[in-house]
Write a structure and sequence with these properties.
2 domains; 7 strands; four-stranded mixed β-sheet; 217 residues; 10 helices; alpha+beta; 15% strand; Arc Repressor Mutant, subunit A; three-stranded antiparallel β-sheet
């Protein structure tokens, strides 16, 4: 069974989280597996280090939903959400984000999550199965562009392997597709491969944007 975004949030909230906390955790679990307190503070519109922010992360640790470790350069505490029942509740019990993550990859995932949090209006599709269903929806004659819930309602497709890729696709309510790319190196080889891998999408999507996320420096 493929869950919609709202269904996943409801499933997470049943573990004792508020709707706002559940929506944040849904993004973390589907995009990165790791997060830092400033990201939740930004998402929730509260001050980093305030009582509400600290209480949320204390709850994650106390109930065994996440483990904490030092970030690169010890600038902040990194929280890895890896509680199996949480991932099972959203239908992603085999998610790679539950596995231990090396420091360099953790930084990349935090960057990706920052990019996702910067675009709160988008509905994201993240798994290969979701991307394959989205492609099927794009190529099915229809006057309306497919939205995230339309993708969830479609049956599984056998061509999942065609869409292997680590970056999510965001869908605007109007139907525009946003293809996200994390630029980690100062040359274009990886980006060229990314474009080639998504050529089939770009040919059939009615409207699309490619959004690049760069390191701050």
């Amino acid at each position: 069974m493929v869950l919609t975004n709202d269904q996943r949030v409801t499933a997470i909230a049943e573990f004792g989280f508020s709707e706002r906390q559940a929506r944040f955790l849904e993004l973390v679990m589907r995009h990165a597996g790791v997060c830092v307190p400033r990201q939740y503070a930004r998402f929730a519109g509260i001050a980093n280090g305030c009582k509400k922010c600290n209480a949320f992360f204390d709850q994650l640790i106390r109930r065994g939903y996440a483990v904490a470790c030092d970030c690169v350069h010890n600038r902040a505490r990194l929280y890895h959400v890896r509680h199996r029942p949480l991932y099972h509740a959203i239908g992603e019990m085999d998610s790679r984000y539950r596995r231990p993550v090396p420091a360099r990859r953790a930084v990349e995932r935090l960057m990706l999550l920052d990019g996702v949090l910067a675009t709160p209006s988008l509905a994201w599709i993240t798994t290969n199965a979701e991307k394959a269903r989205y492609f099927d929806a794009l190529t099915t004659p229809n006057d309306q562009p497919p939205l995230a819930d339309d993708v969830a309602d479609r049956p599984s497709t056998p061509v999942v392997g065609t869409f292997v890729g680590q970056f999510p696709i965001g869908l605007v309510p109007t139907g525009r597709a946003v293809f996200f790319f994390l630029a980690l190196v100062p040359w274009t080889d990886d980006f060229r491969v990314f474009i080639q891998a998504h050529t089939r999408f770009l040919r059939v999507a009615r409207e699309w944007t490619i959004r690049l996320c760069f390191l701050g420096h």
